[in-house]
């Protein structure tokens, strides 16, 4: 397989079904060799975008370019994209090797060339020794890898993945995520993956595009989206967050948000009504006398043991209930309901986000 990937450009694409807008004015540049994930809740338009890229759904607005060439009106079979869907539809009556060989037969490659390519593709997904088995003799994860091999065997310009791992149990899914990442590195192709699993998106992607109600709300690296979510929806969907509403004024280091008698130093440029996102793991329980940019007193209202630490809900007089994730090694005392605590968090931990458009 050659090393070069291909660049994809979505230019204001949209899809309407009658009055219903499934995707609205989506623009996105996917770089050659990039692993991009479309992430969003059910019905947000992920599959619709993927199907427009594949050519199975015709956009009602916008253009799609591959390496600068307009492919909007090109039929799917001429786009030569590899695809893997949820539920790995392998042909049950064919062996693994015959399944993987299928796209090559369609393309009328000779026997010797087919055999070489099938072997290479099966080696790529580490299933070489299962070539002669039927799909029914494989585990779900192995079947999924056969589907991946079948999508990669003809050296596609793009690999389109629509929740390929969602049918698998959590542990197997985590293993295949690792393999998918390694596979992407080995083949150097452009991958577009669809998921509504935020952990999968964070761990696999070079960049993530977040969708909500057919709108692309934010595109960026996993770190950028997690650390600098643009909207309340992004902060809430990618990880967990507390939201603190109040009135903001600009100060020397960012903003100060007032709420009741409390003042919270935060990042942002908002002036007026604002909402802050504050991640539970960025809050610590301060020992007596210790200082932090923000210090908030409260009492533990409830707590649960999570294995990696404790999840606390701390009721505070001014900011309401605040969720805190406390790593076990940092918990100096065992949590207890009613226990008074002092919460500390840096200015950097609290970031102003926009309210989402209704
Ligand atoms: N052929 C169609 N006719 C009418 N509406 C459609 C059609 N296909 C999809 N939709 C609607 O478009 C919206 C987006 O659907 P899409 O399949 O892209 O969502 P998704 O993000 O992939 O969701 P999921 O996570 O559930 O797979 C949904 O509200 C869906 O009902
Ligand atoms: Mg879908």
TrEMBL record:
It is an enzyme of class 7 (translocase). GO terms for cellular component: ATP-binding cassette (ABC) transporter complex. GO terms for biological process: putrescine transport. This is Spermidine/putrescine import ATP-binding protein PotA. PROSITE patterns: ABC_TRANSPORTER_1, ABC_TRANSPORTER_2. GO terms for molecular function: ABC-type polyamine transporter activity; ATP binding; ATP hydrolysis activity. InterPro entries: AAA+_ATPase (IPR003593), ABC_SmlMolc_Importer (IPR050093), ABC_transporter-like_ATP-bd (IPR003439), ABC_transporter-like_CS (IPR017871), Mo/tungstate-bd_C_term_dom (IPR008995), P-loop_NTPase (IPR027417), PotA-like (IPR005893), Transp-assoc_OB_typ2 (IPR013611). Its EC number is 7.6.2.11. It catalyses: ATP + H2O + polyamine-[polyamine-binding protein]Side 1 = ADP + phosphate + polyamineSide 2 + [polyamine-binding protein]Side 1. Keywords: ATP-binding, Cell membrane, Membrane, Nucleotide-binding, Translocase, Transport. The complex is composed of two ATP-binding proteins (PotA), two transmembrane proteins (PotB and PotC) and a solute-binding protein (PotD). Residues 8-238 form the ABC transporter domain. Part of the ABC transporter complex PotABCD involved in spermidine/putrescine import. Responsible for energy coupling to the transport system. PANTHER family: SPERMIDINE/PUTRESCINE IMPORT ATP-BINDING PROTEIN POTA, SPERMIDINE_PUTRESCINE IMPORT ATP-BINDING PROTEIN POTA. Belongs to the ABC transporter superfamily. Spermidine/putrescine importer (TC 3.A.1.11.1) family.
């Amino acid at each position: 397989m050659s090393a070069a990937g291909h660049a994809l450009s979505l230019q204001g694409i949209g899809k309407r079904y009658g009055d219903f807008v499934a995707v609205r004015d989506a623009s996105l540049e996917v770089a050659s060799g990039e692993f991009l994930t479309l992430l969003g809740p059910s019905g947000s338009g992920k599959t619709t975008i993927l199907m427009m890229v594949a050519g199975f759904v015709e956009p009602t607005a916008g253009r799609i370019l591959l390496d600068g060439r307009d492919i909007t009106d090109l039929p799917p079979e001429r786009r030569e994209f590899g695809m893997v869907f949820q539920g790995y539809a392998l042909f049950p009556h064919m062996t693994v090797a015959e399944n993987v060989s299928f796209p090559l037969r369609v393309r009328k490659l000779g026997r010797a060339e087919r055999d070489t390519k099938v072997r290479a593709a099966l080696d790529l997904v580490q299933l070489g020794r299962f070539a002669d088995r039927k799909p029914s003799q494989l585990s779900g994860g192995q079947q999924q890898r056969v589907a991946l091999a079948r999508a990669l065997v003809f050296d596609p310009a793009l690999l389109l993945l629509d929740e390929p791992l969602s049918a698998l149990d959590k542990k197997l899914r985590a293993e295949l995520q690792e393999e998918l990442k390694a596979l992407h590195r080995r083949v150097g192709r452009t991958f577009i993956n669809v998921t509504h699993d935020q952990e999968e998106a964070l761990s696999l992607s070079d960049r993530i595009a977040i969708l909500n109600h057919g709108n692309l709300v934010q595109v960026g690296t996993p770190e950028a989206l997690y650390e600098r979510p643009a909207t309340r929806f992004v902060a809430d969907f990618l990880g967990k967050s507390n939201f603190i509403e109040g009135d903001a004024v600009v100060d020397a280091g960012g903003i100060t948000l007032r709420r009741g008698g409390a003042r919270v130093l935060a990042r942002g440029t908002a002036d007026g009504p604002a909402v802050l996102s504050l991640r539970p793991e960025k809050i610590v329980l301060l020992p007596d006398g210790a200082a932090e940019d923000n210090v908030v007193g409260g009492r533990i209202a409830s707590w649960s043991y999570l294995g990696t630490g404790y999840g606390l809900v701390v009721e505070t007089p001014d900011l309401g209930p605040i969720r805190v994730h406390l790593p076990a090694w940092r918990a100096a005392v065992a949590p207890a309901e009613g226990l008074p605590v002092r919460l500390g968090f840096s200015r950097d931990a609290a970031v102003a986000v926009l309210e989402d458009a209704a």
